[in-house]
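Consider this pair:
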Amino acid sequence: MGRYVLFLALLAGLLAGCVPGTRSSLSVGLRFGLELSPVITRFEPDRGPGASYRVGESVRFVVSLTRPGYLTLVGLDPDGVAYEFDRLYLNPGTHLLSGPPGYRYELRPPLGLQRVRAIYTDTPYPASLVFRGVYTLQGLDQQTSIYIQQSGSRVRDVAETFFYIR
């Protein structure tokens, strides 16, 4: 009986690390081959991670930063097409991002799982490098690593969220 309780306690501890919305900086850093800093403390669509939106609706993103810096937003469509859709400078705090002035983040096909990556650097974005093309997740990770390295940034972070377009 004692071993069973110990096993359940150990299992519960391991599963606690799998809660959506949390992440380990170490594992994320290893994924990109770079040391990341915990700057992005929250990044999610306005309806929450995994929410559904319809074509033509707008999505907004809630992002919280612990320090000022540059943020690049990259979308990855269900068909593997990746593209930048915003680059901005933000101060520390929580922000509701809805698109550049006069625009909004309006959703278009393809339908399905939409991933969005926020890349933080403490230096301006490398103008010569733009996310555009068809990528696997590993290819997008490599492109993200190159982007961060070319920025020359010493403080960097990456967060990712997702939602569905119906």
Remarks:
- The beta strands are 40-45, 52-53, 61-65, 69-76, 81-90, 93-97, 112-121, 132-134, 156-165.
- The chain has a mean pLDDT of 82.
- The first helix runs from residue 2 to 16.
